[in-house]
Amino acid sequence: MASSPLKVSVVSADQEVWSGEAEMLVARTVDGEIGILSGHEPVLAILATGEVRVTLPGGEKITAEAEDGFLSVENNVITVVARNAHLV
């Protein structure tokens, strides 16, 4: 059975940095790195400064640098909100 893709949105204080479908997201939190796949339990985590790595359905990877913010996961929807974020 195929799993549903994740719907990811990475936002900084003044703009949406990236949004789209993904297979996986890895981000650095104050408690260490967290990896999110389809079907992940709901979670709210505080971001640490570092990379947010998104793997797209075709295997391509997108990386954003984020600092100060949070990560929310619920029903395969991931929202990354950072004070400052940009694609690298």
TrEMBL record:
Matches recorded under Pfam families: ATP-synt_DE_N (PF02823)
Q: Where in the cell is it found?
A: Cell membrane
Q: Does the keyword Transport apply?
A: yes
CDD domains under this entry? Answer: F1-ATPase_delta (cd12152)
Q: Which UniProt keywords apply?
A: ATP synthesis, CF(1), Ion transport, Membrane, Transport
Gene Ontology terms for molecular function: proton-transporting ATP synthase activity, rotational mechanism
* Residue intervals of the ATP synthase F1 complex delta/epsilon subunit N-terminal domain: 6-85
Give the main localization category.
membrane
| Superkingdom as given in the UniProt entry | Bacteria
The identity of this protein, by name, is F-type H+-transporting ATPase subunit epsilon
This protein's species is Compostimonas suwonensis
